[in-house]
Specification:
- There is one protein chain.
- Helix content is 28%, strand content 28%.
- It is α/β, with parallel strands linked by helices.
- It has a single domain, classed as Vaccinia Virus protein VP39 (Rossmann fold, 3-Layer(aba) Sandwich).
- The protein has a seven-stranded mixed beta sheet. Strands 1-2 form a two-stranded antiparallel ribbon.
- A hairpin with a 5-residue loop joins strand 8 and strand 9.
- Helix 1 packs across helix 3.
- The N and C termini lie far apart (41 Å).
Length: 214
């Protein structure tokens, strides 16, 4: 299969056509081999407009949602970013091409180990990986310029993640509110507190955590 052509088609028809204009995000998604992050039997579906299973009840998110989350983080290149729920490692690789340093947390060893191996294969030397409960964040590496969560939390984000944002930092996270699931962005304000924005409806696996909530 011509995966490069499929990637271009994915970006043009699923992402650009829906309004994503961040050229850095578009370029890394054109270059990154998404088919490597799914079971070989699903490689022919890797560039389709849907999420796909990756084992242990987890999924690799729909390409448009991945692009939307990246664009919502408003990355410029010099950031230190925390990723909660690395799963297959696809978003991790994209982040590694966009920022200075990535701290990725995954609670499932069965996903984290092969994801780390794939990161090494793709020369992502600016990524650190921890197998842990993501709701605690990575406090010893805080503060972060951006945090992204690939699992839906209850109505409020984990307090630890908000605490680990730098001033001006953005947390992009799906929340279960109003009998639905929505992507939110929280920005830490210089004068204190956070600005909260509801971005769009979404669907994610649940954030399993000990740190309060479900």
């Amino acid at each position: 299969m011509d995966y490069a052509l499929l990637r271009k088609k994915m970006v043009d028809e699923q992402i650009v056509a829906r309004g994503i204009r961040d050229q850095r995000v578009l370029e890394v998604m054109r270059q990154t081999p998404r088919h490597l992050f799914v079971d070989p039997g699903l490689a022919h579906q890797a560039y389709g407009d849907s999420a796909l299973p990756i084992g242990d009840g987890q999924t690799i998110s729909q390409p448009y949602i991945v692009a939307y989350m990246l664009a919502s983080m408003e990355l410029t290149g010099g950031e230190k970013v925390l990723e909660i729920g690395m799963g297959s490692g696809y978003l991790t690789v994209l982040l590694s091409r966009l920022v200075e340093r990535v701290y990725a947390v995954e609670r499932l060893r069965s996903l984290a180990i092969p994801a780390r191996q794939l990161l090494d294969r793709l020369d992502c030397s600016n990524v650190l990986v921890k197998i842990f409960d993501g709701s605690y964040g990575w406090p010893e590496a805080a503060p972060f310029d951006a945090i992204v969560v690939s699992a839906v939390a209850a109505a409020e984000p984990p307090a630890a993640l908000l605490d680990q944002l730098a001033v001006g930092g953005r947390l992009v996270i799906p929340l279960a509110v109003d009998q639905g699931e929505y992507l939110y962005r929280f920005t830490r304000l210089e004068q204190g507190g956070f600005e909260s924005e509801r971005l769009l409806a979404c669907s994610f696996v649940k954030l399993v955590r000990r740190h309060g909530g479900r």
